[in-house]
Amino acid sequence: MNIAIIGAAGFIGRSCVEYFISQGHEVTAADVIPVDELGDFYLLSSANTSFIELFQHRVFDFCINASGAASVPLSVQYPQRDFELNSYNVLKMLDAIRQYNPRCIFINFSSAAVYGNPTGLPICEDAALQPLSPYGHHKLIAEQICKEYRDFFGVTSHSLRVFSAYGPGLKKQFFWDLQNKIKEGGFVELFGTGKESRDFIFIEDILEAVDIVIKHSSQLPNAINIASGIEKTIEEATSIFIKCSGFKGDVRFGGQQREGDPINWRADISILKQFGFEPKYQLEVGLKKYIQWLIGEKG
């Protein structure tokens, strides 16, 4: 199959490029950041990204959009930029597909942030959508744009609601920040109480989930949870990370709550499980691989 991957220089995008090339697919990587080692690469214009040229001269079976901003705090600080990257660009991609490649199936990386604080766990795909941040709102708007182009223009799409992703290549978010604080030594203070919970999923399990979506697209719904289905408190996740890293200092939670952060998350992944999805990486196993990469990256 011919697959376009937009956002190929990022954490999930680069992993998707490497994975689908290894599976024997024809892959075109696209980003505003040039990455020569990714093979067939298309450089997008950061000044005026229309995506038309990408689809005008090439025919794709699937387009995976792994681009966009991924920071709740920055979405609060710069909401217009977050909207442009997470919502408006999705509209431009879909319109280019509508005009030039209407049979291309669009796979958009959404986020569990569309759920906000759920009324119950585990969170099913038909749970109430009540985002707590501009980031979550903009991801939800992107899902609504996908629905618009599906309902009115016949462009097939899937929105992948990824929960707490981690793994080699990720240079931000909780575990990356924790490693930075550990490197400083001594006393480490973290946000929150530690009782908040997340559903962590390792990058290789995410890739398996995307592969299943591509293979079974015609049988799958529009919105799909991508997660491990296992809830871990931040305190538990921190303890596992500390154990794997060998850190001997003190770790405490300051009790502060950050705007836009949900309290508890655990996904219902029964839809993907019907098609053979079984997450392979328990958190301790995944963190050992991530920490090995972090040590090589940070020294």
Explain this structure.
Pfam families: Epimerase (PF01370). This is UDP-glucose 4-epimerase. The protein has a domain at 2-167 and 202-229 and 268-281: NAD(P)-binding Rossmann-like Domain (Rossmann fold). 41% of the residues lie in helices and 16% in strands. It has helices at 11-22, 52-56, 72-77, 79-100, 134-153, 173-184, 203-215, 234-245, 270-273, 283-298, and strands spanning 2-6, 26-31, 41-43, 62-65, 105-109, 157-162, 164-166, 188-190, 197-198, 200-202, 223-226, 232-233, 251-253. Strand 1, helix 1 and strand 2 (26-31) form a beta-alpha-beta unit. It is globular, with a radius of gyration of 19 Å.
Number of helices: 10
- Name the helix and strand elements from N-terminus to C-terminus, one letter apiece: EHEEHEHHEHEEHEEEHEEHEHH
What helical percentage do the residues reach?
Answer: 40-55%
CATH topology of the domain at 2-167 and 202-229 and 268-281: Rossmann fold
Largest sheet: 7 strands, parallel
Whole-number radius of gyration? 19 Å
- Oligomer kind: single chain
Distance between the termini: 39 Å
Number of strands: 13
Helix vs. strand class: alpha/beta
CATH superfamily of the domain at 2-167 and 202-229 and 268-281: NAD(P)-binding Rossmann-like Domain
- The overall pLDDT average reads 95
Sheet with the most strands: spatial strand order: 3-2-1-4-5-6-11
CATH architecture of the domain at 2-167 and 202-229 and 268-281: 3-Layer(aba) Sandwich
- Principal-axes geometry comes out as globular
Percent of sequence in beta strands: 15-25%
CATH class of the domain at 2-167 and 202-229 and 268-281: Alpha Beta
| Uncertain ranges | none
